[in-house]
Structures are given as C-alpha cells and as structure tokens.
Amino acid sequence: MRPDTPAENVDHTAEAARLERTAGLYPEDAEALLLRAAAHLELSGDRPTASTLYDRLLSSTADLDNPQLVRALKASNLWEYGHEAEARAIIEGVRSASPQDPAPWVIVAESLESHDELEAAHETYTEAVHRLLTDVPEPPYATHPLLFGRHRVRRMLGESHDEWDALADTVHSLPITLDELHDPKRVWSLGSENPAELEAEILRLRAELGAYREALSRPFPVAILHWPATELTELLEAYPSLSTEYPTHETHLATIESALRELASSGTPNLGIVTGTVPSYEAFAASELSSPDDATLLPQYATTLAARGRAVAWPPQQGAGCWCGSGRAYGECHGSTA
Q1: pLDDT digits (tens, 9 = 90+) for 114-150
Q2: Number of domains into which the chain is organized
Q3: Same domain, 319 and 212
Q4: DSSP class of residue 331?
Q5: Considering 217, 238, 272, which residue would you say is the last residue of a domain?
Q6: Based on the domain organization, do 274 and 254 belong to the same domain?
Q7: Tens digits of per-residue pLDDT, 216-226?
C-alpha cells in the first residue's frame, strides 16, 4: 500500500498499525517500515502520533541508516501542527550536519518553502546543490528535486538564471519548460475567464502531475546482493554448495561492480546494492519454504531487501565511502577503474 494513496481509498490508521506490527517482526527493517507508518499517520491527520514514531526511531539504541532523514521528516511534521520553534531548531541541525543524502535537504527546504520562508529555502537548496553536485558530471536522479526546487524558489524571488538553473533545465524532461511550470504569474490564470488561458494552465498542471506520478512510481532499485566478508564466510560454512556462486570474497565484490556497470551502460536506471546477513537470508528461505542452499533464492532475497527500503543507490555520491565497506572513498576503491 503506497502512502500517497488518497485517504478516501485507504484506512491510513490501520495501514500504519500494520506497518508497526511488521517492524516488530523485522527489526532490521524497522527504520524503513516505521517511516512509512509515520507517513500514513500524517495523511490520516494524526501528526502527534507520527511524531512519536520519529522520536522512537531517534531514541533507538540501533544505528539508523539515515538519521538526518528522520530528523527532517520530524521537523516538517512538527511545523504542520504548530511546533514551529522546535521545527526550525531541527532544520538548522540538519543543515549543520550537511548530509550526503539529498532527501533530508529536500524535505527541510520544501518545509521552509511551504511556509513562505523563501529566502531560507533558497539558501538551503543552494547549500545542498553546492554540497552534493559540485564537480559531479551527471546529477543523480535523487538530486533532481534539489535543482527543481531551487529553480522554483528563485522564480518566485525574481532571481535571474544561473548555472544551477541551467543544469535544472538540462535534467528536466517534460515538454513544458521549468520557467513555465514555475512562473509565479500562473496562479493569476486560474481566475481568468479566458478559455485559452484556462486550457493552457490545465496542460501545465497535467505536466506537473505527470512528473509527480513519475517520481512516486519509480520502481525499487535493480538491486545486486552484497555479502560482507564475515557474512560470506559464515554463509559458505553453513551452505558449501553456494561456493559456486561465490568462489572468493574478492571475486564477489568485483562481480558486483562489473554487473552494475554493465547494467548502467545498457541504460538500466535506478541501480542499487543491498547487503545481506545470514540470519535474514535463512529467515527469507524459511518464508519461501525452501532451503538456503538453493541459489535461485539469492536474487529473490535481494529484491525483497530492496522492497523493504534496504537498497543503497549506486554509484555512491562523489566523495562518499565505497559500497563494499572498505572505509575508503568509492573513487579510491571500486570506483577507481571507472
């Protein structure tokens, strides 16, 4: 069930409760599941309970995959039901942390924008694109909302185009230009009695809706399964027949990188890596009424992890650590031969 489904078609409270129960069954996926539950609670109007889920994640003893994303979502939610001062403080904390993931930046910038804090929103978008896109040859898909949001705010502020706006134009794929979509005067045409103006505005709104639906309908990443060295050793000790799939750990890592590059060169979008653990894999095999030594389960396991939000986008952002866990930057590790 998708959190963007209209409230009249979904019992968001019941869906949030189901996701909370599922998080109890799969604690390793609790972060992704509870964030979805909080989204349902926000859509149901129960924002205070959504905040308790964000607090539950932030106070957890387990390490979060993306704590700044949780804080950004909490701030956005708090501001919507009257806790402006606390929301502002959290937003400043997120900006100070300078996360490498675009999502927290997008959320806090859009929160500022939605409350008419246009100058602050512009500063946040600009800080994010400088942080994440400087010297990046091709902006990753996840960073496009930063470019589009910055373009939109600059149009509302009456700023002239700069190099980042030009980059936003290049990654924009709809037939209607960003300048048209973000024209502040468009709102005036909604009150027009001229049928031609109204028809033009309907076309623009359809284009915006199409872009929104496209973003929401992005498939789960085409995910490649990665086993850390200790997990792979444990896996092969328990299920020696899988050694035909994984002759050595070094070969396993090289195969992942080469497979992802081949997929990228063929035009496959939205690539990612999921990291497996032996207990999780064994539980998955049991749920499929199969044995873990069945190699055909491995791609299914990878897909299931991706569907639970466990995938990490590939390739990593510039300067980010390598996906293999070596501790070195990707460009100095598996990305060095790119």
Answers
A1: 998 999 999 999 999 999 999 888 888 889 999 999 9
A2: 3
A3: no
A4: G
A5: 217
A6: yes
A7: 555 567 889 99
| 3-state SS track over 274-317 | EECCHHHHHHHHHHCCCCCCCCCHHHHHHHHHHHCCCCEECCCC
Q: Which of 192, 217, 242 is the last residue of a domain?
A: 217
User: In the chain, what is the greatest distance between 2 CA atoms, to the nearest angstrom?
Assistant: 75
Tens digits of residue pLDDT in 64-120: 989 999 999 999 999 999 999 999 999 999 999 999 999 999 999 999 999 989 999
In a domain, 130, yes or no: yes
The reply to whether 24 and 163 lie within a common domain is: yes
Tell me how far apart the alpha carbons of residues 291 and 82 are, in angstroms, rounded to a whole number. Answer: 53
Token pair, residue 302, equals: 């990878």
What is the CATH classification number for the domain harbouring 163? 1.25.40.10
Read off the pTM: 0.64
Helical H segments across 115-194, by residue range: 118-133, 144-157, 163-171, 178-181, 186-189
| Identity of the amino acid at 247 | P
The tokens of 267 are what?
């035009």
